[in-house]
Design goal:
- The chain is mostly helical.
- Helix 7 packs antiparallel against helix 8.
- The longest helix has 16 residues.
- It starts with a helix and ends with a helix.
């Protein structure tokens, strides 16, 4: 009921009151399934109030080793331009073996902004291993590998993605382009 009250308040532009309700859902157990929904809603409310740094500080007070909380902290800091803090938060989520792709993709984006493609590829490979069902990390890694001239690795990634997602046209197109450009004698 508290979560639903928070959503109603949030929809009626009563962000501060909504945040208070979401906190009541989160604080007893920040890792419960309902708290995870409330955490995402809380971030949305703080975002609409343009107070994402306050949101990050609040999430840090939860003292949880939850990869979701670390990822949300990273997203908040990245949104306000605090890239070092965002990177540290994403690293915590990755080190906790986050079972979802966001921290790996977001950390890779920070590395790409720093022009550190090798580190971006490494973190994406961790994401591929941790979340094999997600196709976003292999697609980004394949693109970076191609740009780095590591065509065989990129081909293997695209082939693996297509074996699990045969209807994924972007992977098929990228694979076909690589084969046409770099394996045309095969």
């Amino acid at each position: 009921a508290l979560f639903l009250e928070g959503q109603i308040l949030d929809k009626n532009n009563k962000g501060e009151e909504a945040i208070a309700k979401y906190k009541q859902v989160i604080e007893p157990d920040p890792t419960s399934p309902l708290a995870e929904h409330a955490l995402r809603a809380l971030i949305g409310a703080f975002h609409r109030l343009e107070r994402l740094e306050v949101a990050a500080h609040y999430l840090e007070t939860l003292k949880s080793d939850s990869p979701l909380i670390s990822t949300l902290i990273g997203k908040c800091y990245a949104s306000v331009g605090k890239k070092a803090e965002a990177g540290a938060a994403y690293d915590r989520a990755i080190n906790a073996n986050a079972p979802f792709a966001d921290p790996y993709l977001d950390r890779a984006n920070l590395f790409m902004e720093e022009r550190n493609q090798d580190m971006a590829i490494d973190v994406l490979k961790k994401g591929i291993a941790a979340v094999p069902s997600d196709f976003r990390a292999p697609l980004v890694a394949g693109s970076l590998l191609t740009a780095s001239g590591k065509y065989q690795e990129a081909i293997a990634l695209y082939d693996n993605v297509l074996s699990r997602n045969p209807g994924l046209n972007v992977a098929a197109n990228n694979l076909a382009e690589l084969i046409a450009d770099y394996q045309f004698n095969d």
